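Hi R.,

Quick one: here's the Solute-binding protein family 5 domain-containing protein sequence you asked about.
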Amino acid sequence: MGEKNTPYIYIAVFAVAFLVALAAYSPTVRSQTSSSTFIIGYGGTPFDTFNPFTTYTVVSTMSTLDVYDYLVRYNSTFSPVVPDLAYKWEVFPNNSAAEFWLVRNATWSDGVPVTAQDVIYSFEVANNSASRLQPQVSIITSIQAPNNYTV
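And here's the predicted structure, written out as tokens:
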């Protein structure tokens, strides 16, 4: 190797050393305590809100998926849909309607049970023109709750 290549060798050695040091870095893991603090770590775009109806960034959207329950959600392979707040559901012929049966042990942070009225309220907020979800939910023409645990 000639003297012309020497700076490149130093750069390569420095880059490898930097990558090894970076790979060895491990953030401090906090011990489990009986705290009510929930810590989420995502990289990427700035965080905008925890409101699932108005968030636009990927980081905020991913965070809301970790914080809120939904009637159903995708599993890790995005197929099939799996239960969440609804333990079972039925889709009617021609996709004209759907019925969801809610779990009875879901509660809000204050211990108040989650009911079908809460699902209706969430739909109404999502169907508001200020919501980023409005285009997706606008195809739903009506929503009803025949009892506290059926929508």
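Residues 4 and 10 are 12 Å apart (CA to CA).

Cheers,
M.
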